[in-house]
Amino acid sequence: MYNINLISGDGIGREVMDAGEYLLDKIDLEFSFTYGHAGYHCFKKTGTTLPEETVKKAKKSDAILFGAITSTPGQPSPIINLRQKLDMYANLRPIKSYEGVNCLYDDIDILIVRENTEGLYSQVEYEEDDKVIAERRITKEASEKISKIAFEQCQKLNKNKVTCVHKSNVLKKTDGVFKDAFYKIGEQYPQIEKNDYYVDAAAMYLVTNPQRYDVIVSTNLFGDILSDEGAGLVGGLGLAPSGNIGDKYGLFEPVHGSAPDITGKNIANPASMILSIAMMLNYLDEEEYAKKINDATEAVLKEGKIVTPDLGGQATTMEMTKEITRKILEGDN
């Protein structure tokens, strides 16, 4: 039995978490669930966006599912803090086009590997006279660790090339460290092609010629921006799953936010949560069930009949979830 810690968060995070829990209850694996709190509503009740009790429950679990949070003015990000507290230093964001989904390209299959614990997301900011300063912290150790993850994922996915994205022509010291670490680790993988781009060029190529990429590895902020850009090429954030991986812990979450404009309407696309669950099951070495979930989701998207409004349909969140679940259980995909 797997112990899964569920942290719904705010807005549609709660709705897609209900969908995810429904699916996990139906498939032929045993799960127990613990429940944690984080985010804006949590702050209103407890005075903190990430209670220590939530961190303790997360550490005791086999994996964590996270919904979405609404930012709390003046307060640190709970998901960034949780990543740092559990040293989940690698953020994996697949960018994949699906048949049946209206998108710019129909042949994209990229993995963006984002360093998850430092860079500008160190959240170290301070005022000095009339200036406000944000600290960008890049270390050789973290850069080598994330580069190794990128090359290992390239091998695992049977891909051919890893691209390092940086801005070392301007950020000569910090991104210089990152670029040097990438090529140092790359020496251990002579069979994998390696190249690098400045982030502005990389962003342009992602729009104009995304097929040039297999695996992209980058620093925290650049990786965050590029992964959302990539999601826009394949149908939006409703189809964008992610995994946060460290040496001890794994947290999986849809990339989308809390979407207060549609909260309570039960029309949130559950696909990114469901695809994140598939990533979680791969992390737990349940590859067969991960494949079933991916195949069933792809089949529902291809048919386009029982999908949410963002995909051109009229289904509710749970109706689409139940159709994907039905295909998993019946093998109808």
TrEMBL record:
What does this protein need as cofactor?
Answer: Mg(2+)
A Gene Ontology molecular function term of the record = NAD binding
Q: What class of enzyme is it?
A: oxidoreductase
**Per UniProt, what is one Pfam family of this protein?**
Iso_dh
What UniProt keywords apply to this chain's record, in alphabetical order? Answer: Magnesium, Metal-binding, NAD, Oxidoreductase
Ranges of residues in domain Isopropylmalate dehydrogenase-like: 3-324
User: Is Oxidoreductase found in the keyword set?
Assistant: yes
Q: Name one GO biological process term.
A: tricarboxylic acid cycle
Enzyme Commission number: 1.1.1.87
Q: Which InterPro entries match?
A: IsoCit/isopropylmalate_DH_CS, IsoPropMal-DH-like_dom, LEU3_arc
Question: What does the similarity note say?
Answer: Belongs to the isocitrate and isopropylmalate dehydrogenases family.
This chain's protein is named: Homoisocitrate dehydrogenase
Name the source organism. Methanobrevibacter woesei
Gene that this sequence comes from = hicd_1
